[in-house]
Amino acid sequence: MEPQAPPAPRSRSWFGDGDKNGFIARHHLRAAGFGAHNFDGRPVVGICNTWSELTPCNGHLRILADAVRRGVLQAGGFPLEFPVMSLGEPFLRPTSMLYRNLMAIDVEESLRANPLDAVVLLTGCDKTTPAALMGAASVDLPAIMLTGGPMLNGSFRGRAVGSGTDIWRMTEDLRAGRISRADFEEFEGSLNRSAGHCMTMGTASTMACLAEALGMQLPGASGLPAVDARRGTLAEASGARAVELAREGLRPSHIMTREAFENAIVVNAAIGGSTNAVLHLLAIAGRVGVPLDLDDFDRLAADMPLLVDLMPSGRFLMEEFAGAGGLPALLNDIAAHLHRDPITVTGRSLADNVQGAEVYDRRVLRAFTDPVQPAGSGTAVLRGSLAPDGAVIKQSAASAHLLAHRGPALVFDSLEEYAAVADDPDLAVDENTVLVVRGVGPRGYPGMPEVGNLPMPRKLLERGITDMVRVSDARMSGTAYGTCVLHVAPEAAVGGPLALARTGDEIELDVPARSLVLHVAEDELARRRAAWTPPAEHASRGWTRLYTDHVLQADRGVDLDFLVGASGDVPPRSAF
Asked: Alpha-carbon distance 192 to 426, whole Å?
């Protein structure tokens, strides 16, 4: 869709009214010290800030908001900052994913209900970025995103360590007795050295990169560390560009087209991005009206090798990625595999944005002739009798010898049930077992937590076995690794085949064939289904009740059914 000549600023229906309504809108801002010149028709730019002390990854966004404000003022706009719900991975229970759609509602309604002509979306921690894009897409107000940037590299006893990835390793070493409690506490104090989100290619870094690949943030904004002074410069530029977006009428629907989403999927394969990107891109596409389905993620990425050598699939961290040229260098490097023409928030095409961007370190950002892993190593979509609507596995973080595996299932109905016996030396498990935990999907938990990289049974860790096939209807942190089959759909809580699996059943994973099969006869499955009863509801009221009544399955992005689509930016009726 081509941008149209913009109408009069929508903020004029608030501030341009010469009668009572305009007086009420203006005089309350006059009380805050804003002069009459702010109401002369200049673009009003919202600064949508996900800062919160309950979201430490976004704790520096107040500083970036000040820089955005400078940019808006320099470009002749009127900046107004406002908070929205902030989703912090470390604290939110039962899982931040339960609240992604709630934050998207907050963003959407805040934009539509207020006198804004454009918005700068300040995000960072995992779910804040997709939630903001979902909400902004449903309003389709001119918008530009600025993610907060990754932390500086962790440093432990002379080596770089990464958030998430090394936590899983060190936790398992502690359980297996390979390190002491004192070692673990020393590691804890050395991992997070600055403000910012995870510095591995986890979900936060992945979604920052994909927001840039979609065209929704300025070139280079995804990689620079949070504390890099150049991020402040980007914040100024984002504020100034938001004013121009309001004047030009360039909207998210003009930018986030089918071609832009296809580019994002290819980029996700090249960077070794999080499996969570599948859920988030499906949900964002649903808001902007772009047809996208689960199989697109496998098909479109089939020819793209893993080129970015970052944890958890590689060796380095986001600081090195930025130093190697960041996403602009990668996009220029793989330009032949991308749609070059999609317009971006700069007003220029993706190709124009990155033309001439160079790779400065081929150890980190590898060439096609020397990839980290070959083409087809990205997120694979599995189907079969255990996952008729699909499941995913991150091949680049899995063990090659387990990608084709058949073994007996060990089945647990809840995460707590498995956790209670994971350290039991008498647990009936070996390296051939397929570990299954169900009831951790969108409705089942509720909220689909990041627990799919289930802790290895301690008896296996003590034998030096560090991976096994694990199957669940949960998600997995983008920082995690292992042969983990995720997002099984339909989930167990709605009666998917996963609900019918029993300990001892043979499960076959065949990633090259893209299949996940429960080897149980159809008549036996029918008997089990007849005896199955759905689990009790998690809540009788409130957000959790609304969520569980309306949440879509993983293959459809886990949005709420009534939120798919857009309502536009037409100002609501006046209150006076």
From this structure: 37
Residue the block writes with tokens 């979609």 = 214
**Sign of the CA dihedral with 206 first, then 276, 371, and 336 last:** negative
Q: Which residues pair with 397 in a beta bridge?
A: none
Which pLDDT value is given to residue 20? 87
| Residue 403 scores a pLDDT above 70 | yes
Model confidence band, residue 574 (pLDDT cutoffs 50, 70, 90):
confident
Averaged pLDDT of the chain: 96
Strand order in the sheet with 78-83: 78-83, 44-49, 118-123, 143-147
Residue (of 387, 395, 403) closest to 517 by Cα position: 387
Statement: residue 2 has pLDDT above 80: no
Residues in CB range of 513: below 8 A, 6 or more apart: none
| 43-97: pLDDT as tens digits | 999 999 999 999 999 999 999 999 999 999 999 999 999 999 999 999 999 999 9
| Distance of alpha carbon 504 from alpha carbon 520, whole angstroms | 10
Q: Which two tokens stand for residue 1?
A: 């869709």
> What letter does residue 472 receive in the DSSP assignment?
E
Which residue, among 326, 516, 560, 570, has the nearest Cα to 402 in the 3D structure?
Answer: 516
CB 74: neighbour CB atoms within 10 A? 13
Q: Which residues contact 552 (CB under 8 A, 6 or more apart)?
A: 442, 558, 559, 560, 561, 564
Whether omega for the bond prior to residue 446 falls within 30 degrees of 0, making it cis, is yes
Residue 178 has pLDDT above 70, yes or no: yes
Strand partners of residue 551: 560
Amino acid at 105: I
Which amino acid appears at position 296 of this protein? D
CA–CA dist 281, 211 (Å, integer): 10
Amino acid at 363: R
In whole angstroms, give the CA distance from residue 6 to residue 347.
14
Interstrand relation of 470-472 and 484-489 (parallel, antiparallel or unpaired): parallel
DSSP string, 432-464: T-EEEE-S-STTTTTS--B--SPPPPHHHHHTT
DSSP E strand stretches across 450-576: 470-472, 484-489, 506-510, 515-519
User: Three-state SS for 343?
Assistant: strand
Residue 263 phi, psi (nearest 5) = -60, -45
Q: How far apart are CA 61 and CA 11, in angstroms?
A: 25
What's this model's pTM, rounded to 2 decimal places? 0.96
The band of 3, judged by pLDDT with boundaries at 50, 70 and 90, is low
Q: What share of the chain is helix, strand, coil (3-state, %, to 5)?
A: 40, 15, 45
Q: Decide if pLDDT at 107 tops 60.
A: yes
Instruction: Give the chain's count of helices (H) and strands (E).
Output: 20, 14
Q: Concatenate the DSSP letters of all residues of 232-298 into one string.
A: HHHHHHHHHHHHHHHHHT--HHHHS-HHHHHHHHHHHHHHT--THHHHHHHHHHHHHT----HHHHH
